[in-house]
Specification:
single chain, about 45 residues, alpha+beta, 2 helices, 2 strands, about 40% helix, elongated, binds flavin-adenine dinucleotide, FAD-binding protein, FAD/NAD-bd_sf
């Protein structure tokens, strides 16, 4: 049987909660995509 995968775009609170609930309650494997930070954004931290 094929592994079911959900692709979640955005690793904010909604995306991470969705990934957690999928892992906890289903056999669907969450794959979340996180936006890369630019050097300008990084240097402003
Ligand atoms: C200054 C400030 C203070 C706050 N303080 C509080 C507080 O004290 N308590 C509280 O309950 N709430 C607070 N909030 C609100 C809270 O942050 C939001 O309600 C919550 O983060 C929304 O979650 P979200 O997952 O929907 O969105 P986000 O947290 O915005 O997550 C979205 C994610 O998607 C990513 N993303 C965007 N575009 C792409 C793309 N193209 N590809 C991949 N990833 C992408 C972003 O980088 C981000 O990580 C505050 C908000 C702000 C702005």
């Amino acid at each position: 049987m094929c592994q079911k995968i959900a692709i979640i775009v955005g690793a904010g609170s909604a995306g991470l909660t969705a990934a957690y609930e999928l892992l906890k309650r289903t056999d669907i494997y969450p794959l979340y995509l996180r936006k890369a930070m630019s050097w300008e954004e990084f240097s402003e931290l």
